[in-house]
Amino acid sequence: MNSTSYIELSREAYESNLRFLRSFISAETRISSVVKGNAYGHGVMDFVPMAESLGIDHFSVHSADEAKEVLDAKNKPDTEIMIMGFVANNDILWAIANDISFFVFEFDRVKTAAEIAKSTNKKARIHIELETGMNRTGFDMEEVGRLIPLLKEYQDHLTIEGFCTHYAGAESIANYLRVEEQKKKFNQLTRMLVDNGIEAKMRHTCCSAASIRLPDMHGDMVRIGILQYGFWPSREIFIEYLKGRKDKSEPLRRLIAWKSSVMSVKKVEMGEFIGYGTTFLAQRDMKIAIIPIGYSHGFSRSLSNTGRVLIGGYRVPVVGMVNMNNMAIDVSGIENVKKGDEVTLIGRNGDVEISVASFGELSDQLNYELLTRLPSRIPRIIR
Predict the structure, then answer these.
(1) Cα–Cα dist 27/29, whole Å
(2) Which of the residues are catalytic?
(3) pLDDT over 90 for what percent of the chain?
(4) Phi, psi dihedral angles at 162 (to 5 degrees)
(5) Do residues 201 and 298 share a domain?
(6) Which of 187, 217, 242 marks a domain boundary?
(7) In the chain, helix, strand, coil percent, each to 5?
(8) Sign of the C-alpha dihedral, residues 166, 169, 170, 171?
(9) 3-state secondary structure of 60
(10) Average pLDDT, whole number, for the chain?
(11) Can you give the pLDDT at residue 173?
């Protein structure tokens, strides 16, 4: 069955982005590819094998169900998976059995993991998350004091893979002081653990933004999400990266392109409304093309009468309301538009481009939000 649209992923672009990352992340620091949210909408089942083929051997996800997707997608037996967020207690046995490491940030998870590990005679691989100021998850100073004896009690059943934390807003310079305090607190808490005989294989604190802004905190591993896909965490981070550099060109390349095709073409007479309701009145005789994409496919309803797509090397407007499964575009000025012609929703067509950023700005969505809302059922193709 043909799909109403498809997503292209560029292997060459990803390889270029990895080279860029390695230009400021040392070879001794491991890169964990963050693939939560269906690899930021790029598609876990296609993205993970591509990343593995280019040398990535560690993937980070939010939850156990996402870890299962990566486990099913990966090709190499030595590829590691780390869960940073939700693991139900009854999924811990599965994680341990499949050598999947996971963050621990409250006592119940530590105890449950240790007891399951003890009963199965296989160590649980844990990362101790430290609360440094994000105020979301992690052990704070008082809790670390109570955690130490628990870790010692269960030391035969736990492998401490890492000490970790997450910075609260490293993508914004306005958060500078808060992040600096987090760095200090992380160092204090890890020192407290080590001084009490608790060691970890690695320390990791940096996301994409922090990897750019905090080179002194790269540690043993960085967790790279949005950068690897060719997007900056924020405009501020891009500006900070360029500061002091002679070469001001864009070093990142977008992996993703989203394409559909014309379903039908029809003429609309002046004075007729197009689509649901009365939001668009034809001010002249028009030719429109119907595209089998709507808000159920990730093309936001807020793009009604404001969105743009590319066809035949032209940028053309969306006219009328974007509905669940279809939208109309104005192709009045383009000759020979016909059923089956390629339509680019995100990406390049000829000399024109619709970037994810411009798409997001029109629909009032962040890059992260827009990408992760692209349905998993849309086929992904590696080019």
Answers:
(1) 5
(2) 36, 276
(3) 83
(4) -160, 160
(5) no
(6) 242
(7) 35, 25, 40
(8) positive
(9) strand
(10) 94
(11) 77
User: 164 pairs with which residues across the strands?
Assistant: 129, 204
Q: Please give the model's pTM, rounded to 2 decimal places.
A: 0.92
Q: Which carries the bigger pLDDT value, residue 361 or residue 168?
A: 168
- β-sheet bridge partners, residue 273: 281
If we measure between CA atoms, which residue out of 91, 115, 84, 15 comes closest to residue 56? Answer: 15
C-alpha span between 81 and 65 (Å, rounded)? 12
185 φ, ψ (degrees, to nearest 5): -65, -40
pLDDT in tens, 25-68: 999 999 999 999 999 999 999 999 999 999 999 999 999 999 99
Confidence of residue 362 (pLDDT cuts 50, 70, 90): low
Give domain status of residue 329, yes or no.
Answer: yes
Residue 275 in any domain: the answer is yes
Per-residue model confidence as pLDDT tens digits over 142-168: 999 999 999 999 999 999 999 999 998
Question: Residue 141: which domain range?
Answer: 11-242
Phi, psi of 288 (to 5 degrees): -120, 155
pLDDT digits (tens, 9 = 90+) for 281-329: 999 999 999 999 999 999 989 899 999 999 999 999 999 999 999 999 9
Q: What is the pLDDT of residue 297?
A: 93
Vertex 299 angle, CA 297 and 300, to 5°: 120
Taking each helix axis from N to C end, the angle separating 107-120 and 141-153, rounded to the nearest 10 degrees, works out to 10
How many CA atoms lie within 13 Å of 350's alpha carbon, on the beta-carbon side?
10
User: Distance between CA 162 and CA 159 in Å, rounded?
Assistant: 9
Q: Which two tokens stand for residue 135?
A: 């105020």
- Do 212 and 302 sit in the same domain of this protein? no
Q: Which of 170, 225, 217 is nearest to 190 (CA)?
A: 217
What is the number of structural domains in the chain?
2
Determine, yes or no, domain membership for 201.
Answer: yes
**Nearest-5° angle of CA 183, CA 161, CA 185?**
15
* Measured distance CA(123)–CA(115) in Å, rounded: 10
In this structure, what token pair is assigned to residue 105? 């940030």
Residue 299's CATH number? 2.40.37.10
The answer to whether position 5 is within a domain reads no
